[in-house]
User: Fold this.
Amino acid sequence: MLRVILLGILLLIVARMFWRVMDGILEGVSGKPRRQVRSGVKLQRDPVCGTFVKPGSVPSLTAGGTTHYFCSEKCRNEYVAR
Assistant:
């Protein structure tokens, strides 16, 4: 019984590898990616505490033509007080 289960698992692994190779070949021939690639968002460093934050969802301040992003209002207020 254990032999049958292990053989089934092995067949699943081989089938998965086969289809991944076939997907790569089809992607190479067509020249178009078959899977959607996620674009990364560049994180910005909080100038006060050094935490990395995602721009657009955190407090920010533009000073001297440069936008600074903060992890919290506390860090933003501390930066302004400098």
